Amino acid sequence: MNVFGVDIGGSGIKGAPVDLERGDLAEPRHKVLTPQPATPDGVAGCVVEVVRHFGWTGPVGVTFPGVVTGSTIRTAANVDKGWIGVDAGRMLSERLGGLPVTVLNDADAAGVAEMTFGAGRGRKGTVILLTLGTGIGSAVFVDGKLLPNTELGHLELKGHDAEKRASSKAREDEDLSWEHWATKRVQKYLAHVEMLFSPELFIIGGGVSRKADRFLPLIKGIRAEIVPAELQNNAGIVGAAMAATAEKAGAPRR
Ligand code: BGC
C-alpha cells in the first residue's frame, strides 16, 4: 500500500508516495525550497505543490519541525512563529481540497521510520534518535513505543540551548573542525542525554549522518551504542506516511 509523506524542513519541503511494505519511496521525491520566512501560508502552498506534483488524492502525512499535539503546532524554533497555535492538520487538509492530513514532529517521524525499517529495527529497551541538522530533533522509544515531542534539542548545555552548540548548523556557522564539533559539542551533548535516560542505543540522523565516519569514531566515553540512521534523508517522509496510515486505521497515534 502507498501513502503520501511530506517532510517540512528549514530549507526544503519534500514529499513522495511511500511504499509502506518496503519502507521506501515509491517514486523519486519532489522538493521545493522552503519560503523565507516560513509562514503557514507560504509553507502550505509548497505542501500543496508537492502533493499535486504526483496527482495524489489519498491520505497525507506531514512532518513539522516543532511540537505537535493532535495536529496543532505548539512551538516553532526554526520556522515562522506565526505557526504557533495553528491547527496544521485542518489547515493543510482544507488547502488540499479535503484530503485527510496527519501531522507529527519531524524527529518523531524519522524515529518511527528508523525503528521499523532502519537502524532501530527490532531494538528493545530505550532507544533515542537524535537528528543533527538546523536544530536538534529527538525521538525517544521504549520497547519500540514512541514518547512524542521530547524536544531534547532544547536541553541546556553550558548555559546555551543545546541545539545552538551541537547541531550540524552550529558546526557550519562557527566553522568548527569535525574533531572539535564531535568531541567538544556532540560528545558532551550525548553524555548529558545519557545521564538523563541511559539509553541502550543512540541513532544519529539528519543530513550529517551521511558523513558519520567523519565524526562518530571520534566520540568517546558514551556507554550506549551509537549508530548512524539508515534511512537518512527519506526517514521523515517515510515516517509521515506511516503516521497517516496509523491514523486512517483508527489506531491511537500516540
Ligand atoms: C524543534 C524540534 C525539531 C528539531 C529538528 C527543534 O528546534 O524544536 O521540534 O524536531 O528542531 O527540526
TrEMBL record:
Domain of life of the source: Bacteria
Entry-linked Pfam families: ROK
Xref: CDD domains: ASKHA_NBD_ROK_PPGK
NCBIfam families documented for this protein: PolPhglucPhase (NF045942)
Family under the similarity heading: Belongs to the ROK (NagC/XylR) family.
Record PANTHER family: POLYPHOSPHATE GLUCOKINASE, ROK (REPRESSOR, ORF, KINASE) FAMILY
Record's protein name: ROK family protein
Organism: Streptomyces roseicoloratus
Lineage of origin: Bacteria, Bacillati, Actinomycetota, Actinomycetes, Kitasatosporales
